[in-house]
Amino acid sequence: MKFKTFFWFVAPSVFMMLLFIAAPLISVFIQSFQITQPVMQQIEVETCTPGFLTQTCVTETKTVPVINEETGRTETTTAWVGFQSYQNVLQMDKFWSAIGSGNWGEILQIDFWKALRFTLMFTLVTLPLVIGVGLMIALAVNNAAKSLRGPVIFVSLLPFIITPVIGSLSIYWLFVGDGILTATLERWTGQDIAMFAQAWTIELLMYFYRVWHVAPFAFVIFYAGLQTVNMDTLESAIIDGASRFERLRYVIVPHLMPLIIFIALIHLMDCYRVFDEIIGFRSQAHVISLQWLTFDFLTPDDAGNRAISRAAASAMLTMVGIVILLILPLRRTWRDHKGGAH
Amino acid sequence: MSKATAQPLSLKLASGAFLAFWCLIAAFPIAWIAVMSVKSPRDAFDASAWNVITGPATRAAGNGLSFLDILLGLIVLYFAIRWAFTKLPRLVEQFSPPGFIVLGWLVGAAVYGLLFVLIFFGALPVIFGALNSIAGPLGTPILGLTTEHYVAVWGENQFYRNFMNSMIVTAGVVTVSLTVGTLAGYGLARSGSNLAFWLLIIALVFRALPHSVLVAGYLPWFINSAEILRPILGDLAPTLYGQPLAIIAVLVAINQPFTIWMLRSFFQNIPAELDEAARVDGCSHFQAFRRVIMPVMWPGVITTGLFSFLLGYNDFLVTALLLDAQNQTMVPAIAGYFNRETTTTDQVEAVAAAVSITAPLFLLVMVFQRQIVSGLTAGAVKG
Fold first, then answer.
1. Domain annotation covers residue A257
2. Tens digit of pLDDT for each residue in B68-124?
3. Which residues belong to CATH 1.10.3720.10 in chain B?
4. Per-residue pLDDT averaged across A172-179, rounded?
5. Environment class of residue A71 by beta-carbon count within 10 Å: exposed (0-12), middle (13-18) or buried (19+)?
């Protein structure tokens, strides 16, 4: 295909990606070094309250935003502030003082580090679980009678297809207050259980939700992979006296290895932007993630202001994280590509 | 299967039990909120599972199904579903103009859904009410069931507005991202150049970007867009913030990396000899694409479209930040429910809204199960 034809085929798509992905990235990068504030002015206001004989008048200076008379909006100025927004997000002074005093736990009081800890741990804990559970379901379905497979796949797809916010809400409602499962647990243990009162139980539920949500994806892919396992290799393994587990370990898993890597890569990307769980479980008081942190900065506060520059700084930091996580897999792809070209 | 690979009974049992357990876990939360949504608040949050299922308080309030209702209802349901799988496809094929089969299906599904709701919630209760009064013991309610929360959500709370917004956004996302993505996917599949490879890698990196990063970039521009665009467009300059059309553009762009990867792998499966033959016969690349590739690409396009649909439909983050309260889609609207969820009635209404959002997805899996599975595996197996 000539370059010109290729160009016209991909142009609309590339244009959209440039306009709506690349350009915002640059914009975020610039914003993270800027801060936009309303212009304030000090005016003297005389307030009078009725008093006996004379009014009591107090003159005070107030700081109020300047309002543009033509547009009726507050005027704003934009100033370059260097790394100040990053500093506001990272709070390095508190970070170092926590390390200096030896109270490592205090680091996790700072929003950003708290979010980072949860995001990374969430990604790393759910990854092996998703792959393990997915593989187990795939093996079990492969074992089941043919007529059962269709319905099982149908039921398995439900957690995968459901809106993430709704999915986490549906689990939230099972456990909230005296929800049906909390009540059952209480009856078994004889203790009063509140699943949403402390961070670690919420985190457990989040891990559970994510595995529930993503394992079907892993299952479907592994199941497709299992259909192409080489039967001859499997039979020669049996002749060599390999046990069932050894066959799984040395024949099936190596065969599925590319798929495992694929799932791990996708899972890494998706888990790193964990967000909907925080909304569904309403856990912002206890557990937050990096993406939620940016979302929170972008949501207008009670006065209607959005912390755009802090949001930009935390967005840039989030992006740096995903780039670091992706460097290894991408280098691998690059090497494969170069290897494939020769 | 040879004797050596035959499995001992214990292994078979264990594998079967595990599978049953998984199916239970997979379906339980969804099934449970569906049950909760049709009970009165007291029953829905009852500590005893049996009370939630049978709903004594709901029944006491006069909303219940008798044995006769359940039996007849299930029979009607069975025939309704059977009809959908046997007669409906034929009707759709008969009435949709050639080349517009997808559109025909959309219309068919919408009409079917409407009829279903009308019969089940309009006609059947009247008929059953009459039957119950003459059926004696079989006609006394045994199972509490009420649709009041759905009526409240869709009627009083005007959830249909959010539904319409969701439909506009989703339909826009699917059409635009498929049109743009199909061209790009085809171009990428047929070009082995380094540029194509780099485009794909950059798309992969873009796919990994958290959406909040992008929204942080849009927000200031969208809010001030009227002033920024005024020198160019004059007084017509729109404020993009709160516009469903702007959301469509944003979601299409976010979805583009995934779409082109997926469509590329589908196009690679279509033999290149096909368009080469067309080229030999004197077609340009675009003509070859239109006359030879387009007729055979639909399975891949439908599958990719399903995933675009899911992205547009399921999105919370982008729509919550870039749409205002008047134009909200369904998923962010539900967040509004639990912000004011103070009484248990509000909670059950939120549950009913959640089930309403899930129902279309449920139908989607039912109809397109095979396409979803093939779509999931297409990306993985081809790499």
1. yes
2. 788 888 888 888 888 887 888 888 878 777 767 777 877 888 888 888 888 877 787
3. 158-382
4. 83
5. exposed
Spatial distance between the Cα atoms of A169 and B355, rounded to a whole number of angstroms: 11
Residue B129 distance to chain A (closest CA, Å): 32
Range of the domain at A115: 104-341
Give the whole-angstrom CA distance, residue A115 versus residue B114.
Answer: 45
Positive/negative CA dihedral, A109, A112, A117, A122? positive
- Of residues A162, A315, A330, nearest to B201 (C-beta): A330
- Give the tokens for residue B8: 């001992």
Instruction: Give the separation between CA A17 and CA A14, rounded to whole angstroms.
Output: 5
Please indicate whether, in this complex, the C-beta atoms of A319 and B215 are within 8 angstroms of each other: no
Maximum average pLDDT range among A284-293, B150-159, B236-245: A284-293
- In total, the C-beta contacts within 8 angstroms joining chain A to chain B are 297
The mean pLDDT of A107-112, rounded to a whole number, is: 84
Smallest Cβ distance to A322: which of B26, B186, B209?
Answer: B209
Whether the Cβ atoms of residue A309 and residue A30 lie closer than 8 Å to each other:
no
What's the structural domain count of chain A? 1
In a domain, A321, yes or no: yes
From the CA atom positions of chain B, what is the Rg in Å?
Answer: 26
Taking 80 as the threshold, does the pLDDT of residue B7 lie above it?
Answer: no
- pLDDT for the residue numbered B340: 66
The answer to whether residue A14 is domain-embedded is no
pTM over 0.95: no
The CATH number that applies at residue A109 is 1.10.3720.10
Phi, psi at residue A15, to the nearest 5°? -60, -45
Distance (Å, whole) CA B226 – CA B235: 8
Residue B2 is predicted with a pLDDT of 52
B209 dihedral zone (left: phi>0; alpha: psi -120 to 50; beta):
beta
Do B208 and A294 count as a contact with CB atoms less than 8 A apart? Answer: no
How far apart are alpha carbons B30 and A209 in whole angstroms?
12
Tokens encoding A16: 């959209």
Contacts of A150 in chain B (CB under 8 A): 369
Tokens describing residue B273: 């000899």
Measure A74 CA to nearest chain B CA, in Å: 13
Classified as helix, coil or strand, A193 is: coil
Residue B341 and residue B13 in contact, taking contact as beta carbons nearer than 8 Å: no
Q: A163 with A209: CB under 8 angstroms?
A: no
Question: Which of B318, B324, B312 has the alpha carbon at shortest distance from B211?
Answer: B318
Task: Specify the pLDDT at position B102.
Answer: 72
Q: Is B198 on the interface with A (CB under 8 A)?
A: no
Q: Is A152 inside a domain boundary?
A: yes
Contacts of B285 in chain A (CB under 8 A): 1, 5, 9
**What tokens appear for A341 in the block?**
């070209």
Name the residue of chain B whose CA is nearest to A6's CA.
Answer: B187
B158-382: what fold?
MetI-like fold (1.10.3720)
Name the residue with tokens 């035959």.
B6
Instruction: Specify the amino acid at residue B120.
Output: F
The closest alpha carbon to B159, from B340, B341, B322, B329, belongs to B329
Q: Is residue A150's pLDDT more than 60?
A: yes
